[in-house]
Amino acid sequence: MKPFFAIVPAICLAAISGCVAPVGPVEVTRFHLPDTTQLGNTMIAVEPGDGMDGASLEFRTYSAAIARELARVGYSESSPGTAAGGQIALLSFDRATYQPGRRNSPVSVGVGGSTGSYRSGVGLGIGFDLSGPPPEQVETRLSVMIRDRESGKTLWEGRASFAVKANSPLADTQLGAAKMAEALFRDFPGNSGETIQVK
Asked: For 13-54, how does the pLDDT look when each residue is reduced to its tens digit (9 = 90+)?
């Protein structure tokens, strides 16, 4: 049997890791044309989608994560704005912080009764939930659209979203971008129209 003091640190670490774990897996949906032979094995550039600032640090972080995954599935990186040839990956994302609603009322009322030969009566009990409101969540949504540069035809589109506690390391752009990009391109190109959960 382990000494008590050897068990306490393990319990503390488990509690800490529980505080920063993601609320759920990354939800991913992909769409593509029936013929997927055009995907991979060509030049591609990651470019900003509508409303995206391609010069921002946040965009560059997501762009780098997407470029790594594109290389992993067979693409070769080209410079954004290349005049002709190859494909483009249009990248869009947004992040929002929200406060989840409490599932149960912070006050609960219970009524109990007892009967017997000597005693009878009714008791009223009131309980207060002092745990405070649920922690803030950060939800991130990511979208990548792969198009043929010359024709403008969309060949593949993927969307990913996940939510974590605001104090989780994965709420940080750099860590969250890598996790979402990896989930988005898992088993590329994926089954068109299918939504999966990637842990």
From this structure: 333 334 434 446 899 999 999 999 999 999 999 999 999 999
In this prediction the pTM is: 0.71
Is the CATH number 3.30.160.670 carried by domain 23-100+136-198?
yes
Q: How far is CA 125 from CA 3, 111, 112, 130, 131, in A?
A: 40, 6, 8, 16, 19
Token duo for residue 96: 């929002």
DSSP β-ladder status, 43-48 and 87-98 = parallel
Q: Which structure tokens are listed for 33?
A: 């044309």
SS3 state at 18: helix
Residue 138 DSSP code = E
Query: Quick one: which H or E segment has residue 31?
Result: strand 26-32
Please classify residue 9 by burial: count the beta carbons closer than 10 Å to its beta carbon, then call 0-12 exposed, 13-18 middle and 19+ buried: exposed
Q: Are 87 and 109 in contact (CB under 8 A)?
A: no
Joined tokens for residue 176: 């969250």
- Amino acid identity of residue 80, one-letter, is P
Domain boundaries, given as residue ranges, for the chain? 23-100+136-198
According to DSSP, the residues that pair with 110 across neighbouring strands are 125
- 8 A C-beta contact, residue 132 and residue 173: no
Do the beta carbons of residue 94 and residue 141 sit within 8 Å? yes
